[in-house]
Write a structure and sequence with these properties.
Layout: H1 3-38, H2 55-66, H3 81-115, H4 120-138, H5 146-154
Helix pairs in contact: 1-2, 3-4, 3-5
Amino acid sequence: MPWTTSVTCGGVGGLVVEIVVFYGRIATWQAARQRALSKDRGRDQLPPFGKCVDAPSDFLAAFTRLSPGADAVVVDELATIPAVVALSRRARRLVAQNLVIAGAFITVLVAWDLIAPLPLPLGVAGHEGSTVIVGLNGLRLLREAAWPRAAGDAS
C-alpha cells in the first residue's frame, strides 16, 4: 500500500472519530444547558461552551489519530529514513504552528465570551473554523513537494 493511501486512511478514520467525539461533547453541553434551564437558573449560570469543547486538545487528539496511518511510510524502504527524519522535523515545527493557531482562536473566542455574550452558532463556527485551518495547515506535509525537499535537506 502506498504511503499516501495509508496516511489518507488514517486521516479519514481520525476524522470520523473526531466527528463522533465532537458530537458527544456538543450533546453533553446541551444536556447540561437544559438541566440548568430546567432549574430556573439565570442565563449567567449556564455552562460555558468552552467547558465541553477544547480546541487545542481536540487538535492533538486528531493528530494522534492520524499518526497510525503514517507508520507504513518506511515499511521496506530504508533509503527513505533520512527523508522521513527531515520531514519529522518539519512536522514538529508545523505542530507548533498549529498549536499557536488553535490557541489564538480559543483566546479570541474566550475573550469575546467574557466581554460580550458569544452566540452558539458563532462559537461553533469559530471552533470548527480553527479545526479546518489547522487541518489544512497539516495537509502541507502530504504534498509531493515536501518529500524531495526533505530528502534534499537530509543529504
